[in-house]
Amino acid sequence: MANSITAWMFICFATMASSSPTMTSNDPGCVPVDPAWNYKNSLYAGHWHEVGRFQTAGGDAFQKDCWCDQLDFVTDYPDVGDGNVTYSCRKNGPHGELQEATADLFYDGVPGHFKQRFQFPLAPKLDYTIIFIDEDTAIEYDCTSTFGITNYCIHFMARDTFIEEVKLFDMIAFAENLGLNNQNLTYKATRQEGCRQS
Questions:
Q1: 31 and 179 in contact (C-beta within 8 Å)?
Q2: Which helix (DSSP H) or strand (DSSP E) does residue 15 occupy?
Q3: What would the pLDDT profile of 74-104 be if each residue is shown by its tens digit?
Q4: Pick the CATH number of 2-14+37-179 from 2.40.128.20, 1.20.1290.10, 3.30.470.20, 3.40.50.10860
Q5: Which residue among 86, 132, 135, 158 is least packed, with the fewest CB closer than 10 Å?
Q6: Residue 1 pLDDT more than 50?
């Protein structure tokens, strides 16, 4: 398991380092954004399924060939405070090899906004913000700029393995209207067919 995560990190850094100077000069950077007005840790805590995402090449290296993408947020603080999040998926199908990575979330002074750092040496911190959340769904935006290259992801998540089409459309429009997808990435649906709901 550790080897797969280490390999992912090398892919991420190689992707950023190999980007051309032209891309760097036109890089739009991370977007400052307010967290969800109703955020508290107890609302976000627990198990989530990723339904889809906008994602640059750095993070997408980890999720390549993934099915059943999930995350679990754990914290000792019901309102605000630090926690950690574990990402997991199955490679090449719902019964494939399990891949996991855990990151610490450091409360950054505003409910719903954290600094995220994966649990391995020299891992950088990145901005991690819950921009929308209710009882059943959430949107998380994470972003970092390294070597002058911005990598970001907008995750659309649910307690179930799907989001009703109309609501998902509204959630995507909400994120787009905030200007978060400033590299005009294509939305990618997560493969959840045949995946367990918990």
A1: yes
A2: helix 2-17
A3: 999 999 999 999 999 999 999 999 999 999 9
A4: 2.40.128.20
A5: 135
A6: no
Tally Cβ neighbours within 10 Å of residue 121: 6
Burial state string for 46-85 with b = 16 or more CB within 10 A and e = fewer than 16: eebbbbbbbbbbbbbbbbeebbbbbbebebeeeebeebbb
Residue 120: band (very low, low, confident or very high) from pLDDT cuts 50, 70, 90: confident
Q: How many CB atoms lie within 10 A of CB 189?
A: 12
Give Cα 157 to chain centroid, integer Å: 9
Instruction: Locate 99 and state its tokens.
Output: 């891949």
The one-character DSSP state at 65 is T
User: Amino acid identity of 4?
Assistant: S
